Amino acid sequence: MEYKKSYALYERAQKSIAGGHLSNFKQKAGNPQTFFERVEGSKLYDVDGNEFIDFSLSSGPCILGQSNPALQNAIIEQIKKCYSRTFSLIQIEAAELFCEYVNCADRMRFSTSGGEGILYALRTARAYTGKNMVVRFMGQYFGGTDIVLGGIPKDQNSCRAQDNYDQNDVYSQACYTSGRAKHALDDCYLLEFNDLPALEKLFQEDDDIACVIMEPVALNISGCVGEPGFYQGVRELCTKYGVVLIFDETLTGFRIDLRSAQGYFGVTPDMSTFAKAIGGGFPVSAFGGKKEIMDVLADCKAIIPGTYNGNCLSAAAMKATITELAKNDGEIYPQLFALGNLFKEGVLEAAKRHGVPMIMQGFPAALFPVFTEKERIRNHREAILYSDLPRMYRFGSLMKQHGVIGDDRYCISAAHTESDIYRAIEAADKSLKIIAEEM
Fold first, then answer.
1. In the predicted model, what is the mean pLDDT of residues 411-435?
2. Does residue 63 sit in the same domain as residue 75?
3. What's the pTM value of the predicted model, to 2 decimals?
4. Residues 323 and 101: beta-carbon distance below 8 Å
5. Which residues is 411 bridged to in the sheet?
């Protein structure tokens, strides 16, 4: 594939947009964007005329596919009515749907981005408990605010997050940032996912813990899933010690199941945050929780400001997306899982054929390729010790060269077809052949 026009646009973008990127982690200087001219269904078409099968889905949101007609029509109809900051029926309808399908949500609030929703959920949990500390898990991503971006334990005997850089940790290299407030991480503890004894020990040592926030499936690094009993164990410990349990369902929400991860795994948190799939591609996020917790907002004990919170267009997108996903009791989900399993099986067969040690983690609608000799990766420490993250990035680059765009993880949408999956498997076969030759 040639990218002459994209390269030219990248050079032009750098003259007005810092770095020529709209959102960035650490990356090599001069890493150009691909510029797209149009999108449709499961396909992306760039300015050079290249066609790609889209498994990125705009980093996850487009669960209905690109340019979904039902979503488009909902937005067009709402634009005709109002697109400015007004409180109207559309927000109530979207909120009612959200609360209907999110088990923990007696009440909800809108926000605009996933990171913003997480920030507000943490504030709400602190206001409710009157406590300060936040617990999160290594390798999980919760947006770009200072308290939860990056940070690793300063040594093996301390689980308090610290603002430093680990040469052996690709995640740390990507997420480390200068400009963070000096004491931003003093209020955050970092533990390894799937380690219940460490969590209980921390609860016993510190009674000032407001909340635990966790991705139920670690779809930002290696796709780790809870070991048997882990989710229930975290739930029981949080209840025992009076700690608010927050599921960050930015990526699992309405993608793993119509009732999201809390429904899929059968464990109800106290609060949850959502973004990505609830808007089908439009900028909208939300968080919700038990009435007694959310009452700190109703009573204005805590404030959640935001001019664009629940704006009419985003609320319309949210209502339309959830309505489409809920049709016929969520019949879309078996379809997503069938296509995802087909993709997983095909890629792993290709890896075995070429002698490349590889597994795929996550769940069928959002899969994470992991290059490892192990049968599974359980947490961030194991991802660093036993998986080849640079090879994972190389795989993604090769897949793009063969017409398939992922985003480290490979997401399935309602617009994908078996033909798309077989083309993607063919691209994986070619990519893995090259990786085998490079080993």
1. 98
2. no
3. 0.95
4. no
5. 366
